[in-house]
Amino acid sequence: xxxxxxxxxxxxxxxxxxxxxxxxxxxxxxxxxxxxxxxxxxxxxxxxxxxxxxxxxxxxxxxxxxxxxxxxxxxxxxxxxxxxxxxxxxxxxxxxxxxxxxxxxxxxxxxxxxxxxxxxxxxxxxxxxxxxxxxxxxxxxxxxxxxxxxxxxxxxxxxxxxxxxxxxxxxxxxxxxxxxxxxxxxxxxxxxxxxxxxxxxxxxxxxxxxxxxxxxxxxxxxxxxxxxxxxxxxxxxxxxxxxxxxxxxxxxxxxx
Amino acid sequence: xxxxxxxxxxxxxxxxxxxxxxxxxxxxxxxxxxxxxxxxxxxxxxxxxxxxxxxxxxxxxxxxxxxxxxxxxxxxxxxxxxxxxxxxxxxxxxxxxxxxxxxxxxxxxxxxxxxxxxxxxxxxxxxxxxxxxxxxxxxxxxxxxxxxxxxxxxxxxxxxxxxxxxxxxxxxxxxxxxxxxxxxxxxxxxxxxxxxxxxxxxxxxxxxxxxxxxxxxxxxxxxxxxxxxxxxxxxxxxxxxxxxxxxxxxxxxxxxxxxxxxxxxxxxxxxxxxxxxxxxxxxxxxxxxxxxxxxxxxxxxxxxxxxxxxxxxxxxxxxxxxxxxxxxxxxxxxxxxxxxxxxxxxxxxxxxxxxxxxxxxxxxxxxxxxxxxxxxxxxxxxxxxxxxxxxxxxxxxxxxxxxxxxxx
Lengths: 256, 408
Ligand SMILES: Nc1ncnc2c1ncn2[C@@H]1O[C@H](COP(=O)(O)OP(=O)(O)OP(=O)(O)O)[C@@H](O)[C@H]1O
Ligand SMILES: [Mg+2]
Description:
The complex is a heterodimer. Chain A is α/β, with parallel strands linked by helices. Helix content of chain A is 37%, strand content 29%. In chain A, the strands form three sheets. Chain A has a six-stranded mixed β-sheet with strand order 6-9-10-3-11-12, with helices on both faces. The radius of gyration of chain A is 18 Å and the shape is globular. In chain B, helix 3 (30-42) runs antiparallel to helix 5 (119-127) and helix 7 packs antiparallel against helix 8. Chain B has a 17-stranded mixed β-sheet that branches. Chain B contains eight helices and 17 strands. Residues 47-48, 92, 177 of chain A line the site of magnesium ion.
């Protein structure tokens, strides 16, 4: 099957000028349409950095390599254009936006994406209906959606709100950066169900996680190990079990 | 013009000479003379005038050629609310007035306290009148809340206007003002006396072009238990100053003085306030928020004066926060607390900075374009300053949002 997300020999650094620090060192990875891949790897390996480089965060510089979505270069695009192309990041640390209610924010985002694709805006009643349905699936209190984005939300609530946004925006390619951290056992299952509901032949997903547990619910087609800015090993779902049992030492040693 | 007149202002500019000529053409009046002399001490205030270092009318108003653009649209005008209109050819008085309101147009010029401290207020008072009587007095008595709207707009060279409000004991006035420019120099003076227990809610909207100057001066005096809430939204002009001088002159008086300014390229917005706690147990709350683009300038000058004996049990807070939205944006701020009383609660804060990069990225990752993301965050940032405008809060927010999404 053709690759949906294709990353080739990607190198990137963070910071400016003298302060610049190389983090990704020729990372290659591809996710075919319809597949879910997991990325595991030690703290500080560059997993979040990869998610930011893909989505175009300021302060990250691509120093080599390419990344394409359905064959089109995404690295040259503004962050909002990448979002409109269907790229979504569930943040490891969701950001608080005081003064901007969740509903206002998500509806603005949805209409901005629709506009840039030449589609009509969603009507307020349609949006509210959709928002209610999704909030219910994720057991989010509708009152929470009137509050400013993430302000005063618990760690788990913030993660659920990321998935709420993802389910409303229906992106084509999703990067989930440690969405499972901070979720209680029930929330983990609910969130996983939400994610699974988005699995479709035309969609792809990269799931960054430290724990096997999430992968029990979201069964990945492949598991990649990211260490020191590269993919050092790729395997099937059983690779996650092996890492859970043995830690990273074994695969790191094999890779050298 | 006689030599004596020409010498009133030292080294006058072309514009100042023209102001002298306009003054000379008006009906002689001792009080008018006193007011013009108060103005003439500084002339058009500028870099060398104390309190005007960052808002230089002298340089900005080089001549009194009428600006090219027509005045801006008025977002605050409402069918149900009586409107008073002030233009370079005088003011229009509506036929029907709300219950509890009396209008008195006086040929004689009224005295103005502290004229030297507010040179452009003094100028407005000295030049008002001519085709219409010099002073418009508005008398508001207790009863149902009164709603009034005032518009100040060109076209023309000078739009000088003066209105004096008297709020009788227990009266309640909701006043909106749109200062839309359209004259080379617009100078408005609005005075308020709030008798015991009177309430004033004042909303000021100001917008102007890059070839015009605007000064809006308000003098507010409050008796026992009077309360005022003021909300300003200023978009600036070549130079624009919104100045409020408020005196708590009896116990238990309360004032809220909020403002938001948004200044684009070539525009300047100055929010200046002076509050005197001239009686014990009075409260002042002040929040000013601003956002400035490349080539724009924001100015905030706030002063609380709390005298030794009279100012006991003062409770006052002043906050100014500005966003420099682009490189090349300028903000000057001078918060001043002059506290001579010992039993007071006074707080102040003053910051300027940039939008949070992490917040901006979060919004953009969700597909919101940079300009719109910036607008959303800036609107949230200034929102607190507009909360006191009551029914007009949404209108002000919409104006701010429209500007942020288009100009910014
Ligand atoms: N702005 C920055 N300045 C300097 N170093 C940075 C910056 N951002 C990230 N790094 C460094 O880059 C490396 C990779 O960080 P990254 O957040 O991508 O790791 P990660 O694999 O996501 O780790 P974790 O599992 O802990 O989330 C780390 O060593 C981190 O300290
Ligand atoms: Mg990380």
